[in-house]
From TrEMBL:
CDD domains: AAT_like. Its EC number is 2.6.1.9. This is Histidinol-phosphate aminotransferase. The keyword NADP does not apply. Its cofactor is pyridoxal 5'-phosphate. GO terms for biological process: L-histidine biosynthetic process. The gene is hisC. The modification N6-(pyridoxal phosphate)lysine is found at residue 227. Keywords: Amino-acid biosynthesis, Aminotransferase, Histidine biosynthesis, Pyridoxal phosphate, Transferase. It comes from the Bacteria. Pathway: Amino-acid biosynthesis; L-histidine biosynthesis; L-histidine from 5-phospho-alpha-D-ribose 1-diphosphate: step 7/9. InterPro entries: Aminotrans_II_pyridoxalP_BS, Aminotransferase_I/II_large, HisP_aminotrans, PyrdxlP-dep_Trfase, PyrdxlP-dep_Trfase_major, PyrdxlP-dep_Trfase_small. One of its GO terms (molecular function) is pyridoxal phosphate binding. It is an enzyme of class 2 (transferase).
Length: 362
């Protein structure tokens, strides 16, 4: 029992999934893990205690299905987002990956297409394929930037049902400003998703795409608690959009998709938003330190508004990745020739990475 009896090829798998690779960022128990853009600062003790109390209360009713409409959590997100966002404009799910999947299930599907500007977040392709749609890739300009004109032209030509704009972009960190969002929205009849997973790490005075929601019923702004909120393990993502678009997502979600424990934990964490976000400034400081040091070491460093840095000028990314691994530091080889990506960690973790890299040399 339990042994492998057939290979995947022997199973009646969907034809369009044959030969595909699953999401596979390495998970290795190394002392310094800076590979998946987590917040490496733990949740502060006083907040963890309050979250534990809230989860304990929710546990008493766990014999019942949870609030299918996650009303309290929705209100919490609306208040956190500001910009006049109302609770009926908010949707949430198990990570922003599931939020994006809901949008694709409702607005993509067999025979439809989704579009994004490569290189970008690898899950866009996987989620798109998962709903039976084709993913089309557009191109970026020098330094992975995107102008409003080029973006709009490419989006108009692709004529896809869903467009992903990653702001700032993963894995490059590249800022994406609202003029690009406006131009892309005007260039398509499809859904435009602005993925603001790393929004809290951008300069405070820069506008969010939330400012554009009014009067744009096909615009979606997605966010996550996984990054700035240090809540990746809890799996909570959310979006803001027109109430009609949110209604459409009810057609595809599983009933009670957000557990009572998740709802309780996320609502409690949101009550402590200021404390949860207190580490953002420190992370931005470490990010700037990484950028400055890498530049001094002779690498090409790209502007970043996220909690990670993409750097080029790496002669052999695989060898450098392995040499760092051997020194207990895990970063990410994202498959861009000559480049590697590193997440800003605590001060000590960041020092461990920079010291190891300096020792290895270019
Ligand atoms: C751009 C972007 N969007 C979405 C996500 C998904 O985050 P989660 O599902 O943890 O909310 C990530 C995670 O790395 C990301 O980089």
């Amino acid at each position: 029992m339990g042994g492998v009896t057939v290979s995947l090829d022997d199973l009646p798998l969907r034809e369009d999934l044959r030969g595909q690779q699953p999401y596979g960022a390495p998970q290795a128990p190394l002392p310094v893990a800076l590979n998946v853009n987590e917040n490496t600062h733990p949740v502060p003790d006083e907040v963890a205690d309050d979250i534990a109390d809230s989860v304990a209360v929710a546990l008493r009713d766990v014999n019942r299905y949870p609030d299918r409409e996650f009303t309290a959590l929705r209100e919490g997100f609306a208040e956190y987002l500001g910009h006049g966002v109302q609770p009926e404009q908010v949707w949430a799910a198990n990570g922003s990956n599931e939020v994006l999947q809901h949008v694709l299930q409702a607005f993509g599907g067999p025979g439809r297409t989704a579009f994004g500007f490569a290189p970008t977040y690898s899950m866009y392709t996987l989620l798109t394929r998962g709903v039976g749609s084709a993913f089309l890739s557009g191109e970026r300009g020098p330094g992975f930037t995107l102008t409003a004109e080029s973006a709009a032209d490419q989006v108009a030509a692709a004529d896809s049902d869903v467009v992903f704009l990653c702001a700032p972009n993963n894995p490059t960190g590249t800022p994406l400003e609202n003029d690009v969002v406006e131009a892309v929205y005007d260039a398509t009849d499809g859904i435009v998703i602005v993925d603001e997973a790393y929004r809290e790490f951008a300069p405070r005075d820069t506008p969010s795409a939330l400012q554009l929601l009014q009067g744009r019923p096909r615009l979606v702004v997605s966010r996550t608690m996984s990054k700035a909120f240090a809540f990746a393990g809890a799996r909570v993502g959310y979006l803001a959009a027109d109430p009609a678009l949110v209604d459409a997502l009810r057609l595809v979600r599983l009933p009670y998709h957000l557990s009572a424990l998740t709802q309780a934990a996320a609502s409690a964490a949101l009550r402590h938003a200021d404390t949860m976000l207190a580490m953002v400034d420190d992370i931005v400081e470490q990010r700037e330190r990484i950028s400055a040091t890498l530049e001094a070491l002779g690498y090409t460093v790209y502007p970043t508004w996220s909690n990670f840095v993409l750097f080029g000028g790496v002669a052999d990314p695989r060898a450098t990745w392995q040499a760092l691994y051997d020194r207990g530091v895990l970063i990410r080889d994202i498959g861009i020739p000559g480049h590697l990506r590193v997440t800003a960690g605590t001060e000590d973790e960041t020092s461990a990475f920079l010291d190891a890299l300096a020792e290895i040399g270019r």
